[in-house]
Amino acid sequence: MKTIITVTLFLMYASTSFATGARVDNDLTVNGTLFINGSSLKTTDGLLRDKGVWLPDTPYSAGDVVQIKGSSYVCINANVNNTPPDTKNWSVLAAQGIQGIQGIQGLKGDTGLPGPISDLPGGINTQSGKVQRDFLTYSTLNNVSTLPLHIKTNLSSSGRSCMYRFLVEGFNYGSGGPIFSQVAGFIDSIGVTAGSAVDFSPGVKISQYLSSDHFLVIRLDSPQFYYTGFSVSAWFVNGFITQTVSAVVYSSATNL
User: Fold this and answer.
1) Straight-line distance from the first to the last Cα atom of the chain, in angstroms, rounded to the nearest whole number
2) Nearest Cα to 43, choosing from 52, 51, 34?
3) What pLDDT digit, counting tens, does each position of 198-245 carry?
4) Alpha-carbon Rg for the chain in angstroms
5) Which of 182, 186, 206, 212 is the most exposed place for a label (fewest CB within 10 A)?
6) Are 245 and 155 contacting, i.e. CB atoms less than 8 angstroms apart?
7) Which of 20-24, 68-72, 138-142, 149-153 has the lowest mean pLDDT?
8) Residues contacting 238, CB < 8 A, separation 6+
């Protein structure tokens, strides 16, 4: 009878998968005395009971099956706080398998985001920029004017040199079109170099110059300013980034 029961238990668990650690998935009925690794087990109700992961301060009775560190153990004597593999109270039901062989090399992952850019000659890098959105807003309401508008900034050629870009966005009912224009360049003690002025829509014609007191001025021309409103945003690299940009709008037939 001893041999038959032992073989029967082995066959019942042989079909169970232990890919993630040995365990008893459900209660198991045992008729008679069960011998596990040389230890005899006799339960009061003839069951092996799956108790899940072994927990401290939990009372266990003969026939309780627990899992710990990838192996399964069956309680052979009632106990509390006797951690498997305490051979006096626990017997190995299914030991953890050996380490498998290394798998094949996986597919190459996606390229990561670019890291910080180090300083280029001259001390300029892409981490030393500054953006000030909509630092100025302006509206003519229902006033009609054909005079150019001059946006005088506090960016001066007598200050520290920097690269800049100003974007003007809005609408000019007088010209019947949206305003979407920009100026960009490099300003230093010499003046404005590598300057550019681009109109992306027909609301105004944009240009730039230095005032008589050496401040950068953005000029907007139109056949008519009527119900005109716009905002100005600025981008800086190096130099001016420690300051707050500001501007005043003038209406004048000549440059400031």
Assistant:
1) 112
2) 34
3) 999 999 999 999 999 999 999 999 999 999 999 999 888 765 556 678
4) 41
5) 212
6) yes
7) 20-24
8) 123, 124, 128, 129, 160, 161, 162, 163
In whole angstroms, what is the distance from residue 204 CA to residue 129 CA? 28
Query: Read out DSSP for 44-58?
Result: SSSEEEEEEE--TT-
Instruction: Round to whole Å and give the CA distance between 12 and 24.
Output: 11
**pLDDT reported for residue 156:** 86
Provide the CB-side half-sphere exposure for 239 (13 A, CA).
Answer: 19
- Among the listed residues 101, 102, 91, 59, the one whose alpha carbon sits nearest the alpha carbon of residue 78: 59
CB 216 within 8 A of CB 199: no
Virtual CA dihedral for 138, 144, 146, 150, nearest 10 degrees?
A: -20
- Per the confidence metrics, is the pTM higher than 0.90? no
How many Cβ atoms from other residues are within 10 Å of residue 38's Cβ? 6
Dmax (CA) for the chain in angstroms is 115
Q: Is 196 helix (H, G, I), strand (E, B) or coil?
A: strand
Residue 178: HSE in the Cβ half-sphere, 13 Å Cα cutoff: 5
Question: Exposed, middle or buried by CB within 10 Å (0-12, 13-18, 19+), for 245?
Answer: buried
Q: What percent of the chain has pLDDT over 90?
A: 39
Cβ atoms of 166 and 153 closer than 8 Å: yes
Q: How far is the C-alpha of 118 from the C-alpha of 190, rounded, in Å? A: 28
Q: Which domains, and CATH codes, for the chain?
A: 2-94 (2.10.10.20), 129-251 (2.60.40)
Residue 149 near residue 218, CB atoms below 8 Å: no
d(CA 33, CA 42): 5
